[in-house]
Amino acid sequence: MVVLNKIYTRTGDAGETALGNGARVAKHSLRVTAYGTVDEANATVGLARLHASEEIDARLAAIQNDLFDLGADLCRPEMEKDAEAEYPPLRMAASQVARLESEIDAMNDALEPLRSFVLPGGSPLAAHLHLCRTVSRRAERMTVELATLETVNPDAVTYLNRLSDWFFVASRIANDDGREDVLWVPGKNR
């Protein structure tokens, strides 16, 4: 259970923050940047939810919860010490990836195959979902880079990869099942 009764602590005033294992690191460390970008992605999902139908909103709410799980996973380094921890760290699970894949497949079944790349836009929901897609891709890039330097849960990386695909397919659903997609026309304005 998390209890937050004081919002500012002054412990980060010198440019450091605490990870989930208590270690202090620079706020600009790659690990903090990765989970901070996951938090940013979560905020963009909150904006998308303002425009979502009840069904899509419920799926986006589940994604927001997953993104908090992902942040908790990324803020806790040293996976090899998980068994020694007083409280087992929260880690992303393959079942969360499988849920995204199942939802992507179900949404994609309603869509015609693409014949061009899609420009971000269309309906307000689609535009916000494209923003979610690009921020989650950035979080993925940062997490993949972190994984070249430190141990990272592979399910965390896979989740981020599927998540951006989920946002893309959902944006097409939000554009009248792709009929209102804004298509790229190569060289149109030459």
UniProtKB/TrEMBL annotation:
A GO molecular function held by the record: ATP binding
GO CC, any one term: cytoplasm
Pathway note: Cofactor biosynthesis; adenosylcobalamin biosynthesis; adenosylcobalamin from cob(II)yrinate a,c-diamide: step 2/7
Predominant localisation class: cytoplasm
Residue ranges of domain Cobalamin adenosyltransferase-like in the record: 7-173
Known catalytic reactions: 2 cob(II)alamin + reduced [electron-transfer flavoprotein] + 2 ATP = 2 adenosylcob(III)alamin + 2 triphosphate + oxidized [electron-transfer flavoprotein] + 3 H(+); 2 cob(II)yrinate a,c diamide + reduced [electron-transfer flavoprotein] + 2 ATP = 2 adenosylcob(III)yrinate a,c-diamide + 2 triphosphate + oxidized [electron-transfer flavoprotein] + 3 H(+)
GO BP: cobalamin biosynthetic process
Keywords: ATP-binding, Cobalamin biosynthesis, Cytoplasm, Nucleotide-binding, Transferase
EC number: 2.5.1.17
Entry's localization field: Cytoplasm
Recorded superkingdom: Bacteria
InterPro entries documented for this protein: CblAdoTrfase-like, CblAdoTrfase-like_sf, PduO-typ
PANTHER family reported for this sequence: CORRINOID ADENOSYLTRANSFERASE, CORRINOID ADENOSYLTRANSFERASE MMAB
Family in the record: Belongs to the Cob(I)alamin adenosyltransferase family.
Name of the molecule in the record: Corrinoid adenosyltransferase
Taxonomic placement: Bacteria, Pseudomonadati, Pseudomonadota, Alphaproteobacteria, Rhodobacterales
